Automatic annotation (TrEMBL):
InterPro entries for the chain: CmoA (IPR005271), Methyltransf_25 (IPR041698), SAM-dependent_MTases_sf (IPR029063)
UniProt protein name: Carboxy-S-adenosyl-L-methionine synthase
SUPFAM superfamilies for this protein: S-adenosyl-L-methionine-dependent methyltransferases (SSF53335)
PANTHER family attached to this UniProt entry: CARBOXY-S-ADENOSYL-L-METHIONINE SYNTHASE (PTHR43861:SF2), TRANS-ACONITATE 2-METHYLTRANSFERASE-RELATED (PTHR43861)
Record-stated family: Belongs to the class I-like SAM-binding methyltransferase superfamily. Cx-SAM synthase family.
Methyltransferase domain boundaries: 62-160
UniProt xrefs under CDD domains: AdoMet_MTases
Amino acid sequence: MPRSETDLIFSNKQSKIKDFAFDAQVVEVFPDMISRSVPGYATIIETIGRLSQQYVTNNSNVYDLGCSLGAATLAMRKAITAKHCKIIGIDNSAAMVERCKMHINAFKGETPVEIIEDNILNTEITNASMAVLNFTLQFVEPEQRQSMLNNIAQGLLPGGILVLSEKIRAEDRTCDELLVDLHHDFKRANGYSELEIAQKRTALENVMRTDDLATHTKRLKQAGFRHVTPWFQCFNFFSLIAIK
Ligand SMILES: Nc1ncnc2c1ncn2[C@@H]1O[C@H](C[S@+](CC[C@H]([NH3+])C(=O)[O-])CC(=O)[O-])[C@@H](O)[C@H]1O
Ligand SMILES: O=C(O)C(=O)Cc1ccccc1
């Protein structure tokens, strides 16, 4: 991912904090924002690449749902060795999609990539050997999360894999507070001020509603995934693998 501007979006005191949106201002600073805010982001992207080498089969589709600037798509395109595959990246932010297409075109790769501006809830998933929801499901309305996962499961081939990364709420309140504090320490260590941390937290309150691990696991099983396991945790950030 190319270097981006420093994220200063929440650095000045705002009289009224608007709901967080993936607009042009966020796109400009997104790589910096996500790497300073999500513990383990680089490891997760790298592992998505490794899993694509292992799981993507010849003549199949690969979906990057909520692709933002295409970090997972690029990692998979670099790693896939299967032939005649296609990667489909989808995002409903026009600003993200425009910049994503520029990023993808800046690199060469064997596997064709199509970037589509759409709501992932409307996306038809077919003939898929791999799907990625890397910190995207948390922005989908909770009532729509089960049908989103059902749709992915029905579009995956037998043995196909879903990588689901999410910020998670710990069931135990004391533990949850501890994990949230540790995440805020991580943000502080990456140069965010108390004001930035507090204002972004407020901006995310209505748009990013987190579930606990048991809810995620139950939904994946309900959708028809036979094998489900978390493979990564740092503080309240998780990544799960689900195999059909
Ligand atoms: N219903 C929806 N339909 C389509 N896109 C959506 C929807 N809801 C949210 N998005 C999109 O999902 C992305 C979430 S960011 C993903 C990072 C990326 N996966 C990465 O690996 O770098 C996560 C984060 O910033 O914490 C944004 O680009 C939204 O526009
Ligand atoms: O920044 C945070 O506090 C987060 O929870 C992660 C995040 C990263 C990028 C956009 C939205 C949320």
